Amino acid sequence: MQSLMKVVLAPRTGSATESERRKKKKEDVLLERSLSSSTRYPSMPRYPLSPLHGEVDVSEIRKANLKVTGMECAACAGSIEKAVKRLPGIEEATVSVLQNRAQVVYRPAFVQEESIREAIEDAGFEAEAIVDDAGQRSGSISRFRIKGMTCTSCSNSIESSLKKLDGVQKAVVALATEECEVRHDAGVISHVQLAAAIDDLGYEAELLIAGEETNRIRLQLEGVTAAADFQLVKEMLVALSGVTSVDLDFSNAMVTVSYEPDRAGPRTFIETIEQAGVFTAKLEAPRGRGSHDRGLEIQHHKKYFLWSLVFTVPVFFLSMVFMYIPGIMEGLEHGRLNGLSIGALLRWILATPVQF
């Protein structure tokens, strides 16, 4: 009788074990799906079944703010977002070219902030963590347009010099937009003194914004023709996190957005407006003296380039073409004037204007 009971109970025990296995597997799949339910970038991997599930709270979400240097255009921001979103555990990644910043929402059970920073650096940019400066939000904000910057060394030198001034809480210089934003204590240092400090470094500073106000930009709208269209655009922008106010300019088809730079940025606003499929938006083109000076600078460099080309092309032919033509080569090399060949003398005469 006991042997029969063992034979009968054995399959039931095996069936119970198999049932527990299936149940556990189902729970793991449901857990993975729940973690992956949010909208993800197409190339993002699904969350792995981490062995730390029993020790770490996988539902915990953190936010990392990083300063990114080396960006020059929207394509740079796109490549950084793509690199970050490929990491497991990334909920959201937003990169602002104007602010040189990246904000990443992630799950620490699957990825660490150091891995995010390394992913940005592997994409060809530099990244460093930004210490929370919430206690310094009461200062005034001054924004300048800076002329004369040519590389990241220029922007970095301006930024480091401004940070050393008494009363300056934060300074960010964007080479791509030729703009500088400074958060400072107006009772210690004024925007006039900030502009003078920038001028002392060898650059020209033009004041754009001064006072206790949040970041503000103006967007030019296209495809917006009726009041209902303006209202729709306003509702889309107001719904975004970090937007403090939205003002409409019906006559010029413009919208002014005030926002918190740590939570939103111009690129987010433009993408949100264009998601409707019928509207387009772009940053307001610079006006007045700044844009006029920029045009003069472009014409100035173009003129120098063309004159340099006039002298450089003959040097190329003298050095790389005529030297291999027998008759001309002998005339250029055998003629001597004060120890210099005719060819060397001609090259010196033509290269001197380009040099100076």
From TrEMBL:
Sample GO molecular function, one term: copper ion binding
Region (Disordered): 1-49
Record's keyword annotation contains Glycoprotein: no
InterPro entries: Heavy-metal-associated_CS, HMA_Cu_ion-bd, HMA_dom, HMA_dom_sf
Signal peptide: none
UniProt entry keywords in alphabetical sequence: Copper, Membrane, Metal-binding, Transmembrane, Transmembrane helix
Xref: NCBIfam families: copper ion binding protein
The protein, known as: HMA domain-containing protein
UniProt organism field: Physcomitrium patens
